[in-house]
What does this fold into?
Amino acid sequence: MREKGAIQITVFLLFFLGGINTVQSQDLSTVDSVDLDRYTGTWYEIAKIPNRFQKKCAKNTTATYKLMENGKIRVINECITAEGESTKATGVARVVDDKTNSKLEVSFVSILGLNLFWGDYWIIGLHENYEWAIIGNPSRKYGWILSRTPSLTDADLDKIYTILREKGYNPDEFEMTEQEIK
It folds into this structure.
């Protein structure tokens, strides 16, 4: 009986975290190619679909990516809470489509060095000079707009919103992130 309960919990978690793709996921296309060396570095979050794991973030949200020797990518997400405290989450990403490098999975849960609960991180839009990126997942429950700078021009945002619509997202679901420019 205990084993059956564990299987049910595991299946629930896979669905909940997006680990099992739905039919809709087949329709989400990614960019043709990502140069991971150019992609690494710090990105500012411009907007996101609100989610439970970023509830504490009030402003200045960034994501920093660094290639590791084992081919995986170190992920450091940082933000400032409403109380003015800095908070950080460290995880790891792995490429799941090495033909394009545009489909990755990310995990922020590690037990004894074993990463658990991988979530889809698909690059569905990317500026030709890596100035901005659009991140999605097959269920379209999650989405982020990232930039190398704390803000984007209206023209860039219009282009990004067009891509989001083409990919089956509703841009109105995205909430702008406050970035204090220092």
Q: What stands out?
A: The two ends are 57 Å apart (CA to CA). The helical segments are 2-16, 36-39, 154-166. The longest strand covers residues 57-67.
